[in-house]
């Protein structure tokens, strides 16, 4: 242990040496990852052997029966002992024995479950995932108490040895998808994954420079459980408060738990409003710029659209400056304490915006449409998708500025073709729109009542299509 782990050098790695029935027994542990009270209780049981037992050659069995814990594992290799101890378990090694004990007394530092800031709902559960993988799987198990729910544990990273778990229903999830994910995870050859699930995503889907998210993240336990019941595979990674849902399409990223916590009519209304915001975040600014550059496209009743005064700065420059200004505020708000970020937003909105108009840097309509577009960006539930849509919007604005109507048409067409050819773990990205599936498309447009949702989505290729038994249809 001195050579392998640095016993005596690393202050947090310790050993407690006991003499039980005239034989040495060592307990190895890492401070901060273990529950001290459990260790003290175990040591009391072990020390008590000297008062209750006679010297015996069967000390191994005696100690095994005195280990008061629900998780005790026999280990025959030093590598396994070291890995488990560094994961927060304790290792008990007995003099003269070729087998050691590993006992789970982990107590990771972390916070209690609370509602995620990015996925809040008016009605619904307030618990969310935390940085502890054991607690995250327990939150899911609490919602799915099925004997066929599996949490398959893997270790990733040569040095970090991070715990990664695959959550799925054994009789529902697609075996081919599971094999693909297992193969990709086992093929990861890197020293560590300190960025947790994001690093896993880059290895699994090999996204490259594609800005559009191929997997979906969630910090809500109810959202993860709902997707597992549909046949998705959920990837849990220790130290990360979010999990990866796969496979997902574009439309998975624009859905929110709030829609399913309201009546179907209200949920559909909220969904349509969100779709409108997402479309505005992509097409509003390029379309308005096109109308300004080519006023002949406007009907007579809409001729008022466009700036009423001339400026020295081209509109495309104004749009980019205002758009980047909102991005500056968003980034600054992330790195600013909450009370100060509120004041900063007021100063930026009232002073900077108004003064910029007064000095002639912006025309008022630019501020209006950029603000509406910004609100549409914030209505997108997926943070990753909102940034990707912003990049697509900027590219469209450049094409419109240079080529006017042909630029808008060609840019929109290329964007659609780009999304159509994308595949997320062998899943068409724009399903059920392209390829078109009527039933799936209706479920995207309308929030269907749960009693009417009899079948699982075909896109996940579930082994069991029925969410409700056929005799209850």
Average pLDDT over all residues? 89
Q: Write down the overall geometry.
A: elongated
Total of DSSP H or I helical runs spanning 4+ residues = 15
The order of strands across the largest sheet is: 1-2-4-5-3
> Helix and strand string, N-terminal first?
EEHHHEHEEHEEHHEHEEHHHHHHH
The amount of beta strand, in percent, is 5-15%
Main pleated-sheet profile: 5 strands, antiparallel
Question: Tally of extended strands?
Answer: 10
Q: What is the straight-line distance between the termini? A: 62 Å
> Which class do the helix and strand fractions yield?
alpha+beta
What would you report as the Rg, rounded to the nearest angstrom?
A: 29 Å
Instruction: Detail the poorly predicted runs.
Output: none
Question: In which range does the helix fraction lie?
Answer: 40-55%
